[in-house]
Amino acid sequence: MQPTPTDIQRFEPRSIKIRWSDGCETSLTAAALRKACPCATCREKKKGEVTQATPTMLPVLKAEEARPVDIQSMRPVGNYAYNIAFTDGHDSGIYTFEYLRGFAD
To answer: What is the pLDDT, as a whole number, of residue 54?
Structure first.
C-alpha cells in the first residue's frame, strides 16, 4: 500500500515537511518542487531546454523567475494528490502522493 501524508507543515523559509503514514519524513524546498513541476507545460519546457542547450547560451529569466519562489497554497486533489500554487503565479501542477514520496527515496 502506498504511504499517504499524515501531516504537512511549513518550516524554515520556503520549505515544507511531509510526515508519511509509514513514519518517514520528507523535507522539500519550494524551489525544488517548482523545478520538478509535473504539469504538461513544465514537462514540455524542460524537454525543449535539453534539446536547445549549448555551452554558450545563458537563459534569459523573467522577473518572476529571478525572485525566490515560495509555496502560496496547497490544495488536496481527491485522495491522491495536491495542487501546489507558487508565488511566481504557477499553479497547474498536480503532485501525486507517489510523486512527492519519490523525493524521499
So the answer is: 63
Supply 65's cell numbers.
523567475
Average pLDDT of the residues in 78-104: 95
The H or E element containing residue 79 is none
Strands 5-11 and 15-20: antiparallel
Nearest to residue 36, comparing CAs of 84, 87, 105, 89?
84
**Given the DSSP bridges, would you call strands 25-29 and 15-20 parallel, antiparallel or unpaired?**
antiparallel
**What top-level class would CATH report for the domain 1-42+68-105?**
alpha beta
The residue ranges of every structural domain in the chain are 1-42+68-105
Q: What one-character DSSP code corresponds to residue 17?
A: E
